[in-house]
Amino acid sequence: MNMNFNDTEQRELNSRLERKQMREMLTTYQNLLQGCFDECINDFSTKSIQSREEGCLMRCLDKRQKASERLTARFQELNQQMADKGGAPGQ
């Protein structure tokens, strides 16, 4: 990936990319949790989570995690196709 960057510039670029990826991962995780919370937690009359809410959360998180994994795998396939062809998909 070195595009005529010196070592310092390359390290800085890598560091920025890592931070960006971490922020994106945390945002995705937060959105996943928030969606399941909104879908499953609706009784605020007690401090504890009710068993039906806990079950709903576990099913929701599992479902969304599996969907995320499938999407990630598909994006990786598309990226590999792009790399193999040297351009965008469909070219």
TrEMBL record:
BP-aspect Gene Ontology terms: protein transport
Start and end residues of each Tim10-like domain: 17-77
Pfam families linked: zf-Tim10_DDP
Entry keywords, A to Z: Chaperone, Disulfide bond, Membrane, Metal-binding, Mitochondrion, Mitochondrion inner membrane, Protein transport, Translocation, Transport, Zinc
Keyword Cell wall biogenesis/degradation in record: no
Regions that span the bilayer: none
Localization of this protein: Mitochondrion inner membrane
GO molecular function term, any single one: metal ion binding
Protein's UniProt keywords contain Oxidoreductase: no
Cellular component aspect of the GO annotation: mitochondrial inner membrane
Membrane-topology descriptor: Peripheral membrane protein
Top-level taxon: Eukaryota
Primary location recorded for the protein, binned into one broad class: mitochondrion
Similarity annotation: Belongs to the small Tim family.
Job of this protein: Mitochondrial intermembrane chaperone that participates in the import and insertion of some multi-pass transmembrane proteins into the mitochondrial inner membrane. Also required for the transfer of beta-barrel precursors from the TOM complex to the sorting and assembly machinery (SAM complex) of the outer membrane. Acts as a chaperone-like protein that protects the hydrophobic precursors from aggregation and guide them through the mitochondrial intermembrane space.
Quaternary structure and interacting proteins, as annotated: Heterohexamer.
Note on domains (UniProt): The twin CX3C motif contains 4 conserved Cys residues that form 2 disulfide bonds in the mitochondrial intermembrane space.
Alphabetical list of PANTHER family matching this protein: MITOCHONDRIAL IMPORT INNER MEMBRANE TRANSLOCASE SUBUNIT TIM9B (PTHR13172)
Name the UniProt record assigns to this protein: Mitochondrial import inner membrane translocase subunit
